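Q: I'm building a small set of examples for a reading group on sequence design. Run inverse folding on the following structure and report the sequence directly after it, with nothing in between.
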């Protein structure tokens, strides 16, 4: 990509590239049956830019044609008790604090439908669910027909859904034209008396501040701060009613309505400053992790814990030739026995840490530290968790 690209959120011509990586796997959650096909996975480039005006961060080199979110795509995190608890708390919040009842609920990117089942699965909520996701692999309807699934993307064509509330969790960061998605959500809600939208997505400020270099990867082409999310929703006709950080600060939870006024604080170059600071620190952070992994390797085998997007990005950056990391642990049984995209590291269940004699496992997300330690304790496995 040459020359300035317009910001997909505010159309400003000021985006500044602060991160470049070539030949990264395009899918982080598409796992493989053998190491050779894992290494041969399709690849693309990263050229992350930050908009000086609204603070939106996006991959200028992204090409949607390289990706396919079919039924073999598995990014479910519901095998983790901590993540399940997080999802349950969000559903409780919507049903109880936000009075989401008697509503037609549209979920864009519903995956297997875990969240929609919590919102509309019980008849006493009075809710109906409409779930869109090309990777949905379950039945077309559930909960006695109160929930219907559509195995396709939600596009402006679907605006006839006539929903009262739209829920969109961990989806908009995969969408190269988030304004188009926000406008489609508005159309889908336009006939409701109380139209509302609820969005959850990674917080780019958290990634930049903590220098989490493995949180930049191909699937996530659109990364938001509190302010760029507000800029997007305002441009699509929404007024933000609440924003907060959830899941240890990693995710941004945003609530908006179709009418009303919300005071707006422009980004004013704040995210760009963070992006420039990040760019200045990234190389040292990579070198530091290289040194740590080499040190751990001297003490014996090293595992990663977490074969999701974070683990895949980390392994591709720090151990592309499979010389330092023995295996990658994941609680998702569909991933075990298979291989990490790009590198071909084997994905195993946690009990293999004991069988393989692995003294150290690097946690890809410390939010799961307690539950992972509990599993090791329960099975008397002496692997040490590091992060
Ligand atoms: Zn912008």
């Amino acid at each position: 990509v040459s020359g300035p690209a317009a910001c997909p959120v505010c159309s400003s011509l000021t985006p500044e590239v602060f991160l470049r990586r070539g030949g990264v796997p395009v899918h982080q959650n598409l796992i493989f049956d053998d190491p050779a096909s894992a290494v041969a996975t399709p690849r693309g480039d990263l050229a992350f830019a930050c908009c000086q005006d609204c603070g939106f961060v996006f991959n200028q080199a992204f090409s949607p044609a390289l990706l396919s979110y079919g039924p073999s795509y598995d990014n479910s995190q519901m095998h983790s008790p901590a993540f399940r608890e997080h999802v349950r708390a969000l559903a409780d919040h919507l049903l109880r604090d936000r009075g989401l009842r008697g509503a037609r609920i549209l979920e864009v990117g519903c995956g297997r439908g875990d969240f929609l089942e919590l919102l509309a699965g019980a008849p006493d909520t009075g809710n109906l669910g409409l779930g869109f996701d090309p990777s949905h692999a379950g039945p077309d309807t559930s909960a006695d027909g109160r929930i219907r699934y559509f195995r396709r993307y939600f596009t402006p064509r679907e605006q006839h859904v006539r929903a009262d509330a739209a829920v969109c969790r961990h989806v908009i960061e995969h969408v190269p034209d988030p304004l188009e998605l926000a406008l489609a959500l508005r159309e889908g809600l336009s006939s409701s008396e109380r139209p509302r939208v609820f969005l959850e997505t990674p917080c780019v400020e958290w990634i930049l501040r903590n220098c989490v270099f493995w949180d930049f990867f191909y699937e996530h082409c659109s990364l938001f701060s509190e302010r760029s999310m507000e800029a997007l929703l305002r441009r699509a006709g929404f007024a933000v009613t609440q924003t907060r950080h959830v899941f240890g600060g990693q995710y941004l939870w945003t609530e908006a309505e179709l009418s009303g006024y919300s005071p707006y604080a422009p980004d004013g170059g704040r995210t760009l400053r963070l992006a420039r600071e990040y760019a200045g620190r990234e190389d040292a952070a990579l070198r530091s992790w290289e040194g740590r992994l080499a040190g751990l390797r001297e003490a014996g085998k090293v595992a990663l814990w977490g074969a999701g997007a974070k683990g895949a990005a980390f392994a591709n950056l720090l151990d592309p030739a499979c010389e330092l990391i023995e295996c990658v642990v994941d609680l998702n049984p569909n991933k075990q026995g298979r291989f990490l995209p790009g590198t071909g590291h084997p994905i195993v269940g946690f009990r293999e840490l004991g069988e393989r004699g692995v003294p150290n496992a690097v946690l890809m997300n410390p939010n799961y530290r307690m539950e992972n330690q509990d599993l090791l304790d329960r099975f008397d496995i002496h692997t040490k968790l590091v992060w």
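The first helix runs from residue 35 to 39.
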